[in-house]
Amino acid sequence: MKYDDVDKRLLELLSEDGRISYVELAEKVGLSRVAVKDRIQAMKDKGIIEKFSVVINSEKMGKKVSAFFEVDVEPRRLQTVAQNLADNPNVASIYQMTGPSTLHMHVLVEDFQKLETFINEQLYSVEGITRVESSVILKRFKSRTGYKL
Description:
Radius of gyration: 20 Å
Number of strands: 4
Order of helices and strands: HHHEHEEHE
Helix content: 25-40%
Distance between the termini: 16 Å
Number of helices: 5
Strand order of the largest sheet: 2-3-1-4
Shape: elongated
Low-confidence stretches: none
Structural class: alpha+beta
């Protein structure tokens, strides 16, 4: 689906506030509420808009430690290990990557004791993992969810 400048502006506005009303969107882009609703539905139908969601501040919800992991896995066990880790509630995201690591993973936990427990009991114990490197986030300067136009 091709999209025009109006669609792009709608996506920008929705990225800023996913709860903005069709009426407000219509006023900002100069279309009717029905036309805006139809455009958004078309973008949903085509998969441009995958879903509407809320961004939760993990620190304010008690997850004070945020760490990234590079995890090498035996190739024949990649899918099983990735699914095992993806099912772990401490894992915020996990991706298969090119380059020196096989999986790139973001983990959120309450404190450093929980991080140690995660590493020793829930990561090192997974059969098929051959190497683990971790980096703890000290300060967030920018965080992004989804694609920014």
